[in-house]
Amino acid sequence: MLYFLGYEVDEDLPWHSTISRTRQLYPAAVFEHLFDQVFAQCVSAGLVAGDTQAVDSAPVKAAASLDSLREKQATVAPSLTVAGKPVTLAPAAAVHSAPAHQLRREATRRAKRQAAPGGLGARHPKAQLLSNKTHYSPTDPEARISVKPGKARALNYLCSVAVDTAAGIIRHIQADFADRRDSAHVPELVPQLQTRLAANELTLRDFVADTGYSNGFNYAFLEQRGMTPWIPVFGAYKPAVEGFTYEAEVDAFRCPAGKLLPFRNYAPSQDGNWVKNYRAVYQDCQQCPLKMSCTPAAPQQKFVRSAFDAAYRRAWYRQQSRAGQPMRRIRQRTVEPVFRSLLHHYGLRRVGTKGRAAAHKAMLLSAIAYNLKKLLKHQPKQTARVAIALYPPPQGRCTPHFSPRLTSPKLRRVHLLAKPTHSLRSATATVVYNT
Length: 435
Prior knowledge:
Helix content is 32%, strand content 23%. The protein is of the alpha+beta class.
């Protein structure tokens, strides 16, 4: 290792902070450029197909503990007086504070859960309800509280990875906040990925991910950018409403009684997406003989569908097709082994830096090391070839080169020319026949 680094045996090594502090001083663009260079070498070696990518994400522990959490204070915006008028300024540390109404709402919800019979307060009187809305970590303010099924709650960052399906080369990696859904990072991830592939003259066609990336906007966004999203829809989604028929030409549903439920308006949902409201005419439902079996409690029938319902429907039928299950197995055998290697062998079980930008650098370095190891272990296929040049025999009798009499003393001479090349071993045999 000393020889590789250029140090003599008796020469003093640099202090570790020289490397760690230098890494902090370099911007993330330097690490991105290094990742692009290694990825380009993998493309030149034929390790990247480029047409299909598998995407997944996993939490990575931050360099902070839950014991360091502090409660956020109510937002107090400083004010100044300019020309006799008060001017409100933005708070200096927004991550350490939260709106007062949000803190009151969370405190009320926490008190109800503590006081509920059989709730958390009855089982664990000293337990605290921790939330990103009410708490922050002074050690690493950008780390977020998150929990994954089967694992303990912790302060994490989210590592999003895109892997090529040809040889498992990492195409893209980024650090995100752990308190957001996986589907929220697709609009940021895809343009960067397409830019890197276009720089290497590759085109992305199939986007493979799990149900966590299921989102109507993502389906429409990927289709608009020329990709086929192989993302399973949520189990609660139904492409059709039982007893009702959708008529695309008028954008309305027709009920069993033959009445139309036309589109009324768009509205935002609780998770930030947009939905379409369909509602029947009040008089049609009041005079309908099927009202008691159709909508006994409401005055009229209404539906709420996603604003990207057409893209949802295409994704559902794509999932049920013959190619849907093979695409799911491709994702499982492509991206999940990569994550296991990054977490257990490449230092991403826990990042030792603070801040999202520093975590992004650490993830980039792990991905660079992973791709370099793949590149160094890659051996191009070598084909052994043997070429035998046979000259036309002269007039008279001759002995073929494949005859048992080849070793006879009557044979004048046999001249073998072996000339190895860089990529394969070839031999040219020249046989001189006896007469």
